[in-house]
Amino acid sequence: MHFHRRPSWHIPEREVTPERVFLDRRSVLAGLGFAGLAAASGLGLPGRASARPAGEAWTPKPPLDPAYADAGRAITPEAASGSYNNFYEFGTHKGIAEAAQALPSDPWTLRIEGMCAKAGEIGLEDLLAKMPVQERVYRHRCVEAWSMVVPWIGFPLADLVKWAEPTSGARYVRFETLVDEDSMPGIRQSWYPWPYVEGVTIEEALNPLPFMVTGVYGKVLPKQFGAPIRLHLPWKYGFKSAKSITRISFTDTQPVGFWEELQGSEYGFWANVNPEVPHRRWSQAQERVLGTGDEAPTQLYNGYGAEVAGLYAAMDLDKRALWF
After folding, report:
1. Is pLDDT above 70 for 222?
2. 34 CB-side CA count, 13 A
3. Is-contact 210 200, C-beta < 8 A?
4. 244 CA to centre of own chain
5. What are phi and psi of 288, to 5 degrees?
């Protein structure tokens, strides 16, 4: 029979600090006012996106990327864009802003998985520390034929892809969003294919335009916009831009999106903005500008053709499948 002699520093199991408490030590220190002690000890404090509630000022405000400082239209007033939101997890109408405040967005962990070298979990604050956070002014065009211009804060999706180091066989990036029955009444509607899923090709993801958003209008991303982290693809219809992302996967299989699964003849994988190809139930030639109600002509690729048209040069632009 073998016996294990306990060392002099041994303490009983009942006195060991629970893992959950240890991992939350930074929040405890911050709450007790030991910010300086935490910094000196190397523990650090939560990053900006999780240190303050959604909607608070982002301090200091990230620099504005000069390449994306002007979207060719006036920025939509925050009061308009912040009160007119598609977020079916909280309801099928546009006035979900109040209900969305129940969304549990802090702390937040992303799962990176699939065909990549850095598969695993990472806290949002830790991810932000690795990314070139900046502000960009982008157009947003909904498939419902309304549009807006928003100053987003975040980082290029391409930087996240490069950091994750996808394998040579990875052809797509798949995004999966939060499912929380306690805060999201829409999740209880079983006829929807939850969770919300969307995807892009690796080539699209590596384009400079796709943006992982963590703030807007100089603030930490409000919950109705998809806190604490969402995607924005300015040349595609808005349903492609998944909100409240929890999982990012690298795969060799083309993802089937939430709306594509529901009605693939109207909402397909590509969903590039094209005024020449109507939705099955309405024209896409014009759009209603949110905040003013003005009508404006829809632009091919939502005005971003110079940046993305090359991605589709080998495709037949006359085929509806490219857009839906």
Report:
1. yes
2. 13
3. yes
4. 6
5. -95, 125
Q: What is the pTM of this model?
A: 0.84
pLDDT at residue 86 greater than cutoff 80: yes
Amino acid symbol at 286: Q
**Cis omega (within 30 of 0) for bond into 195:** yes
Given a contact cutoff of 8 angstroms between Cβ atoms, the answer to whether 173 and 199 are in contact is: yes
According to the model, what pLDDT value does residue 53 have? 75
Percent of all residues in the chain with a pLDDT value above 70, rounded to a whole number: 83
Per-residue burial over 93-121, b if 16 or more Cβ lie within 10 Å, else e, is: eeebbebbbebebbbbebebbbbbeeeee
Predicted confidence at residue 21, as pLDDT, reads 40
CATH architecture of 55-322: Alpha-Beta Complex (3.90)
Taking the C-alpha atoms of residue 212 and residue 142, their distance in angstroms, rounded to an integer, is 18
What pLDDT is stored for residue 22 in this prediction? 39
Cα 175 from Cα 243, distance rounded (Å): 9
Q: What are phi and psi of 251, to 5 degrees?
A: -145, 165
HEC states along 208-236?
CCCEEEEEECCEECCHHHCCCCEEECCCE
Amino acid at 306: A
pLDDT at 311 over 90: yes
What is the rounded CA–CA span in Å between residue 259 and residue 270?
Answer: 12
C-alpha 34/C-alpha 41 separation (Å) is 11
Give the residue-averaged pLDDT of 292-306.
97
**pLDDT (0 to 100) of residue 324:** 82
- At a CB cut-off of 8 Å and minimum separation 6, what does 34 contact? none
**Domain-by-domain residue ranges, the chain?**
1-45, 55-322
